Amino acid sequence: MNRYWELLKRELRLALRQGSDSMMVVGFFVLAVILFPFGIGPEPSILARVAPGLVWVNALLAAMLSLDRLYQADYEDGSLELLILTPAPLELLVAAKVTAHWLTTGLPLMAAAPLLAIFLNLNAYDLGVLLLTLAVGTPALSLIGSVGAALVLGARRGGVLISLLVLPLFIPVLIFAVGCVDAAQHAFPWTGQLAILGAILLGAVPLGLYASAAALRQAAE
Amino acid sequence: MFGLQNPTKFLKFAKLVGPWFALATVLLIGSGLWIGLFASPADYQQGETVRIMYVHVPSAWMGMFAYTVMAVASAIALVWKHPVADHVAKGSAPLGAGFTLICLVTGALWGKPMWGAWWVWDARLTSMLILFFLYLGYMALSGAFDNAERGAKASAILAVVGWVNVPIIKFSVDWWNTLHQPASVTKAGMPSIDPAMLIPLLLMGVGFTTFYATLLLWRVRSEILQTRIRNIRLAQIHGEG
Hints:
The complex is a heterodimer. Chain A is an all-alpha fold. Chain A has helices at about 1-20, 20-40, 45-65, 70-75, 80-85, 90-120, 125-150, 160-185, 190-220. Chain A has one domain. Chain A is built from 9 helices and no strands. The longest helix of chain A has 30 residues, at about 90-120. Chain B has helices at about 5-40, 55-80, 85-115, 125-140, 150-175, 195-240. The mean pLDDT of chain B is about 80. In chain B, helix 2 (about 55-80) crosses helix 5 (about 150-175) and helix 2 (about 55-80) packs parallel to helix 6 (about 195-240). The interface of A and B includes residues 154, 155, 169 and 179 of A.
């Protein structure tokens, strides 16, 4: 567990020193959502109707855009090989990386969501549900995305490839997250969808960790 | 596994069995098409368009079956490192993508007269579309590396991860929205489809399976031969140097 914290601290220190990366993800997220009122018109009721989907689709894209730097830098400068050679299990490294990725993208996205709720005319109760789905759903995105990021190491045009690999696997998260907020908007019970989202997250933990570690091992061979 | 993980034995096996599969394909698809198109009744509601089913349904089956073959072969390749398993997985992907595409296109052609639209966002259509994208991702990844062996390993991991995800995608999409009729052949008890239609459908189903097997054997054979040619060339280059 100690190693996990050390690795996490390393990742966070690197992210903070490089600074602007996670702000750029949030900037993309906010800007992309702001484009939609221009595209579909400023009618408040329409915006409130499509708000959960808009926020989620753009959160998905923002999370995906930040994936290619997850292992790429360590792969290029060789520190990934050293990290693989340490006696700590590789899954622990992946866990630390994914946690750091979520702290630097998922969490800032959640922080930006209330602002977007104002822009999109979403009321406070629905915003609360939306934040809950983001809290449960974005860690699953980081876990699944980590597999994709590890698989494309050393590939030609990895950044484009990653979207083709990862987006189809993101679809269940999107469906249940948006379904949850939709149900809340129409005053239906919504805890069921949230529970399934939680189940997806729990399933993604072992799958993401083991598959990412396997992918990193074959990338470093 | 009968020694088939040995490429030489596999080549022998493919040479022996391949023609029989090809013959079975011609007979089964030929008779299935003839019965399906001419000798079976039209549906009392859907009229003649129901005949699209004899291509649509078997290709949907094969689209899913090919993915399972790909994932199982990938798992075998990852665990036991059998070279033939890699070739099977790699060869299965374009075939499965082709069947999935046929299923989507015939589905659109069938949907236009029946539902009044080429495409509806229904659970089954959507999950087949996602399956098609999973195939595309797999093929893109396996071709994205300069080192073919790395491409094979990376895409094998992807195929196994995708296999775990396919049921999840299927159920999530089912809950999301559905219009397509439920399964009528594989459900428990008697199939709810008339024998006059069931017989050509099953003929086509088995025919598509042998068609897939024939093509897969060919693809794996040519992959093995290509690998050998590459190795011989490399040996020649090193011999000269």
